[in-house]
Amino acid sequence: MSAAMATNMSSLRNALRFCVLILPLALAACVTSAPQQQATRYIDPAYMAMYAARPDEAHPLPATDITEVDPRFLRREVAYYGREEPGTIVVDTAARYLYLVREGGRAIRYGIGVGKEGLAWAGRAQVGRKAMWPRWTPTASMIKREPERNAKWAGGMAGGIENPLGARALYLYNNGNDTMYRIHGTTEPWSIGQSVSSGCIRLFNQDIIDLYNRVPTGSPVVVLRGTSLPDVEQDEQRVSFY
Questions:
Q1: Which of 17, 88, 117, 205 is 20 to 30 A (C-alpha) from 40?
Q2: pLDDT given at position 127
């Protein structure tokens, strides 16, 4: 074999070796990797229905987005170990739960958000008045704390979707006197399970409608502060609309 042919064969081998090395990289450059998809949390269809839109309302109520809500704050029936009689509302401000006591050691449990006004009072009361799509008037302290947001409503805001009291309100009285304590809906569903800047005890609008339908005027209410009821997570089930 001549020197020229040997040189050509060596060059060919080097070229083939280079192609073998570069081919996988070239192919990889032609493939677009699929974007990583964030895992979507499964939501039980029963809960989606529970918090669905309510077009039958005086102010058509949109569905509540519960995709980012801690599931333990969704409405459910649980075992109840307290001493209260059936029909009593028990507000556990520390744990962010409201219980409606039922027969047979059971209760309906609702997630709540607690405002500063909600933390300022504890004790026993009765549901002295109930209102559908209630009118809201901010307190003097709320106006002072957030004047840009609240001062324009010093004369009151009519009921509606934007009203901070939401779809329903229960007004608590003690010996015939208004305690100024309210259990109501909310325009901020993300606040359920949280401590918030203002308001009393707030529930999802679908939940306050459910509670409103279950309790008559005169129903007893117990508000706990600093103590919580025993954990009942191990014995629970969903509760449908009233």
A1: 205
A2: 98
pLDDT tens digit string along 36-86? 555 566 788 999 999 999 999 999 999 999 988 899 999 999 999 889 999
Which are the catalytic amino acids?
184, 200
- Tokens of residue 7, six digits: 């040189």
Closest C-alpha to 143, from 130, 132, 152, 135: 152
